[in-house]
Amino acid sequence: MNSDSSSPAVQVTITDECKILILSNEQLFTLMKDMDTAVRNGLGKETNPSSVVKCYITYVQDLPNGTERGKFLALDLGGTNFRVLLIELGENNYFHMDFEIFKVPNHIQTGKGKELFDHIAKCLAEFVKKYNLDSKTALPLGFTFSFPLRQVGLTKGYLNSWTKGFGCSGVIGKDVVKLLKDAIKRRKDVRIDVCGILNDTTGTLMSCAWKSPNTKIGLIVGTGCNACYVEKVENAELFDGDKTKPHVIVNSEWGAFGDDGKLDAIRTKYDREIDEASLNPGQQRFEKMISGMYMGEIVRLAIVDLANQNKLFEGRLSEQMNTKGAFDTSFVSDIESDTDNFKNTMKVLSEMGINDPSLVDCANVRYICECVSSRSAHLVSVGLAMLLNKMDEKSVTIGVDGSVYRFHPYFHKLILQKTRELTKPDIKFDLMLSEDGSGRGAALVAAVAFRDELPSMKNEESNF
Fold first, then answer.
1. Burial readout 75-96 (b: 16 or more C-beta within 10 A, e: otherwise)
2. 56-57 and 156-159 as β-strands: parallel, antiparallel, unpaired?
3. Is CB count within 10 Å lower at the N or C end of the chain?
4. Pairing relation of β-strands 156-159 and 192-198?
């Protein structure tokens, strides 16, 4: 744990209760083995249909190589807010980016799919108009769509299931690129050429590869959690694209790991409660133990449980603390960032309606946060070490993005340390914070696709 502010003696009342949140290396190695099997099943033609980890083929086979030029749009949809971006690439690594953030209103998130894509098309048109882009010319666009997607080409992908609170009807099983193109066509006021669809992990990988060609894994730890990686074409049995190129990026969709029961031995009563109360019970169980959408709620449930046992706040709880979803994951980062007499912890608890907590209470709340965030980081490490060992490349850069990774004070360090413990000793790796992977990466996918359409670039080899 990372707390220097409190002694083990102070925490003695809850240490035993929190043991269920601490995983041994032995447990982590077992999970790695199970996850490796799940990924291999996801890659296999025969085994994929029954595999919980789907390993979707992205059809992205080329990295940026510095010859990309021009203006490219990106659409980044992965949560309640989405962005439209304009990226310009030029000589001598020239890079310029403008973007606007648009909201997806609640009624659209759970309404009809047609309304969602009409709303997106309207925002795209507003953006094109605002930046005086020539709407008579088809503008190349990369589309980041951060939901489980089964791709059958670079510009064709079918939604497998909604996550992150979305539930639009009429979209599951449909080609989302076609739905977007149809919505743009209905407007008749903007011309856009969708050059590629990808998820945020692929965008993160592409964005880091622009600076570091060694990038072979893209990781997101934010509202959700997922990873993609570079796989040999012969191992990706469902790939039916260009087999003259040796590699293709695979979107693991590892958030579903454990949906078949492989996580049951380490799932706590808090994990089960979160899962049962979620919009998708029984699904994304790995993600629900890791990501920002759930981390704060795991902490809240643990606090409520321990208070009900008279081990916190003398058994007193506020209405806020008893409210589902009230304990934001950002509170976990705030509490663990404390350096001065639990100042942040007291502020957070005050916001949650808990006034005048004792120092022992503050130390205990911090300890709960540390247990939950360390477990989250160690589960991410299981996935990363499994991919690193599977690829068996001697030097790999891992591109990382997401609010939990960015803002939690120890997450980077926790992942780095545990992944080193779990990875083969001869494999070297580093973690690189992605600069806007889901936006910049999407534009780069469009730029690479556009580059590869140019006659002078046709014979360029894949640069994985």
1. bbbbbeebbbbbbebeeeeeee
2. unpaired
3. N
4. unpaired
Q: What is the pLDDT of residues 336-358, one digit of tens each?
A: 999 888 999 999 999 999 999 99
Number of alpha carbons in the 13 Å side-chain half-sphere of residue 304: 21
Tokens at 291, concatenated: 């990501």
User: Could you tell me how far CA 340 lies from the centroid of its own chain?
Assistant: 32
Spatial distance between the Cα atoms of 389 and 236, rounded to a whole number of angstroms: 17
Nearest to 259 by CA among 290, 276, 282: 282
* Whole-structure pTM value: 0.86
* Residues 193-231: tens digit of each pLDDT: 999 999 889 999 999 988 888 999 999 999 899 999 999
Count of residues for the chain? 464
Query: What are the φ and ψ backbone dihedral angles of 153, each rounded to 5 degrees?
Result: 180, 175
Amino acid at 462: S
DSSP state of 461: P
Report angle CA 93, 99, 101 to the nearest 5 degrees: 150
Instruction: Report, in angstroms and rounded to the nearest whole number, the Rg of the chain calculated over CA atoms.
Output: 23
- Annotated catalytic sites, by residue? 164, 200
- Classify residue 175 by its DSSP letter: B
